[in-house]
Amino acid sequence: MEIIKTGLAAFGMSGQVFHAPFISTNPHFKLCKIVERTKELSKARYPQATIVRSFNELTEDPEIDLIVVNTPDSTHYEYTRMALEAGKNVVVEKPFTSTTEQGKELIALSEQKGLMLSVYQNRRWDADFLTVRDILDKSLLGRLVEYESTFARYRNFIKPNTWKETGVSGGGLTYNLGSHLIDQAVQLFGMPEAVFADLGVLRNGGKVDDYFIIHLLRPSLAPDVKITLKASYLMREAEPRFMLHGTLGSYVKYGVDKQEAALLAGEIPGNPNWGEESEQEWGLLHTEMNGKEICRKYPGISGNYGGFYQNIYEHLCLGKTLKTHAQDILNVIRIIEAAYQSHRETKIVNLK
User: What is the number of alpha carbons within 13 Å of residue 263 lying toward its C-beta?
Assistant: First the structure.
């Protein structure tokens, strides 16, 4: 295929912000159909796309090459299965599935059908994460001993009329933001041998977990690194997004990648300076180089969520390696399940 004809399963926040802008601005894709069950919000921005009222209208269209399953968490398994059975390549939003067994079944089906199954782990293309990877690749901290990654949020009330807060169709912070933090850690350090976690419902009236702290123990690529992942909806004063400590020094980074805010403000991906951080936003590197102590801002690498869809094109059309293969990301679901078990049973859960 020269142009990947794409159907978008929903036009809520993720469709409007994380998928449609990057599909529509990549010349190798054509955004053909968008599911909006009652509204027509996409018409103004994407007039070339046909609005349809059901997911079946994507699976039944012989022209569609790729379906993006960006519907509520609890529908990921069913809709991905339907798309694969209809012969469509699939990008499914994180979290991949609710259970490891569901994920295994979908991976087997995709292999049987000879189709691509990718999970939208877009935060591999965050500016701060790319910068952390760069620092580690250059061994600027010496031997890393501690890695802490935190998503700080503040909303001290339960948002009404949203499935993410009720738990009816999935939700919960561990499946939501945890999917990103876990995936990033596994990318850097490999699969942990064990998990120890504490989850919580901290807000008044909360029905799903809105706090977690997860320790990934003895990761395969760096068994001695102490890994802590954390998120909460009651962090009015933010902790560092990343804190890394090594035998030579430390790196501390505040603030979050700017792409989501830019997209919410209506900016178009690919504009000049897309994903760049100002010097004021760079993290602090305090370490030794050539025997001399240095303490200065470390230039951030530009973020680019467009890299996700560019890789999808390169895989489907040029045969290049898929960076977000569902088989690899299945480990994220394994770790999330282990975190819930660890919390319930107040013990370390082994993954081997």
Answer: 22
pTM: 0.96
The DSSP bridge pattern shows strands 29-35 and 4-8 to be: parallel
Beta-strand relationship, 283-289 and 292-298: antiparallel
Residue with tokens 């504490």: 198
CA distance 92 to 35: 15
Q: What is the DSSP string of 5-24?
A: EEEES--SHHIIIIIHHHHH
- Which DSSP symbol is given to 230? E
If you write DSSP's letter for every residue of 291-315 in order, what string do you get? TEEEEEEEPPPPP-THHHHHHHHHH
Full pLDDT tens readout for the chain, 352 residues: 789 999 999 999 999 999 999 999 999 999 999 999 999 999 999 999 999 999 999 999 999 999 999 999 999 999 999 999 999 999 999 999 999 999 999 999 999 999 999 999 999 999 999 999 999 999 999 999 999 999 999 999 998 888 888 777 678 999 999 999 999 999 999 999 999 999 999 999 999 999 999 999 999 999 999 999 999 999 999 999 999 999 999 999 999 999 999 999 999 998 889 999 999 999 999 999 999 999 999 999 999 999 999 999 999 999 999 999 999 999 999 999 999 999 999 999 999 8
Expressed in angstroms, the distance from the first to the final Cα of the chain is: 41
What residues contact 46, with CB distance under 8 A and at least 6 apart? 20, 24, 31, 34
Instruction: Give every strand in the sheet of 283-289, ordered side by side.
Output: 292-298, 283-289, 250-253, 242-246, 144-152, 226-232, 211-217, 194-200, 349-350
Contacts of 210 (CB under 8 A, 6+ apart): 172, 173, 200, 201, 202, 203, 232, 233, 234
Between CA 78 and CA 91 the distance in angstroms is 13
CA dist., res. 115 & res. 108, Å (int): 10
Place of tokens 């951030």: 300
Q: Give the span between the Cα atoms of 86 and 9, in whole angstroms.
A: 14
Dihedrals phi, psi of 325, to nearest 5 degrees: -65, 135
